[in-house]
Amino acid sequence: MGRQPCCDKLGVKKGPWTAEEDKKLINFILTNGQCCWRAVPKLAGLKRCGKSCRLRWTNYLRPDLKRGLLTQAEEQLVIDLHARLGNRWSKIAARLPGRTDNEIKNHWNTHIKKKLLKMGIDPVTHEPLNKQATSQNSSTSPAEHLPQAGNNNNNINNLDEAKETNHEILNSEENSSSSLAENSSGEDSLLLDSICSDDSLYDSLWLDETPLVEALWDTTPKPQNNDMNFPPSWEDNCAWLLECQDFGIHDFGFNDIKSNALQTIGVEEEEQH
DNA sequence: AATATATCCAACCGCATCCGA
DNA sequence: CTCGGATGCGGTTGGATATAT
Question: What range(s) does the HTH myb-type domain occupy (predicted)?
Answer without folding.
Answer: 9-61, 62-116
